[in-house]
From TrEMBL:
<dbReference type="Pfam" id="PF00550">
    <property type="entry name" value="PP-binding"/>
</dbReference>
<dbReference type="InterPro" id="IPR009081">
    <property type="entry name" value="PP-bd_ACP"/>
</dbReference>
<feature type="domain" description="Carrier">
    <location>
        <begin position="1"/>
        <end position="78"/>
    </location>
</feature>
<dbReference type="InterPro" id="IPR036736">
    <property type="entry name" value="ACP-like_sf"/>
</dbReference>
<protein>
    <submittedName>
        <fullName>Acyl carrier protein</fullName>
    </submittedName>
</protein>
Amino acid sequence: MIKERLAELVEESSDGALTAQEALRATVPLTALGLTSVGQMRLIDAIESEFGVEVDLTEDGLELLDDLDLLAGRLSSR
């Protein structure tokens, strides 16, 4: 359920350039599929608002934004 919600947030954050279904099926980083840096920033804001967490803005934290499985796993372990 978390992964599906994150995929919806990816679609919203990318203004539809990357659909939720594309994000769910991704086998490559989301940035390779078209999630821009602006989209990443919007996604960070959405995740922080929805899940009440702070997204780490270091390189490691930003890498999580490219992989919904890793991101969902991190959020579910909090």
